[in-house]
């Protein structure tokens, strides 16, 4: 299927929403964070550098456990649809583990090489996290931020 180029006379819904959002942000009545009040709501978020990770994790785990509790006890007599037998079915297995086993079984690479690739990937992720943590905190008022890495792909506001 060929996707036609976006034409200026028929902008996509996403482009239209972006344009409305840009217009709202430029209006004098746009909401800002420069108001008096409390910063207590910040405790509910992870933080740009994950500085609130422990509390955020606790809140998510509490919410998930509470949700599971209510699912189990809403109608306690209802049968379980996800049985132990279903959990053992081929479609329910971890797809990465299955793929790794097939790769090794077909002798495409050995288990040692596979493990070294995993270790290398984990080291790169750790390196990226360490690098990001050393960067200064973002300043939305001073930076020309864009969600897309290539500015040429950004639709201009109408």
Description:
By secondary structure, this protein is mainly α. Among the domains are: 39-75; 88-135. The protein is 47% helix and 0% strand. It contains 5 helices and no strands. The chain has helices spanning 13-26, 53-74, 84-87, 95-105, 111-134. It is extended.
What's the gist of this structure?
The protein is mainly alpha-helical. It has five helices and no strands. The protein has helices at 13-26, 53-74, 84-87, 95-105, 111-134.
How many individual helices?
A: 5
Rough outline: extended
- Outline the low-pLDDT stretches: 1-10
Query: Count the strands?
Result: 0
Oligomer: single chain
Task: Give the structural class.
Answer: mainly alpha
Order of helices and strands: HHHHH
Furnish the topology, listing elements before pairings.
Blueprint: H1 13-26, H2 53-74, H3 84-87, H4 95-105, H5 111-134
Q: Can you tag this structure with a few keywords?
A:
mainly alpha; 5 helices; 158 residues; disordered N terminus
């Amino acid at each position: 299927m060929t996707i036609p180029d976006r034409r200026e006379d028929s902008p996509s819904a996403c482009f239209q929403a972006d344009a409305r959002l840009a217009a709202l942000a430029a209006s004098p009545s746009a909401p800002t964070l420069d108001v008096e009040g409390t910063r207590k709501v910040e405790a509910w978020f992870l933080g740009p550098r994950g500085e609130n990770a422990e509390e955020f994790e606790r809140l998510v785990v509490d919410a998930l456990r509470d949700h599971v509790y209510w699912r189990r006890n809403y109608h306690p007599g209802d049968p379980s649809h996800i049985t132990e037998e279903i959990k053992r079915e081929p479609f329910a297995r971890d797809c990465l583990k299955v793929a790794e086993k097939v790769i090794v079984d077909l002798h495409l690479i050995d288990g040692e090489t596979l493990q070294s690739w995993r270790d290398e990937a984990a080291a790169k992720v750790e390196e990226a996290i360490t690098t990001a943590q050393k960067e200064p905190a973002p300043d939305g008022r001073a930076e020309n931020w864009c969600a897309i890495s290539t500015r040429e792909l950004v639709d201009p506001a109408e």
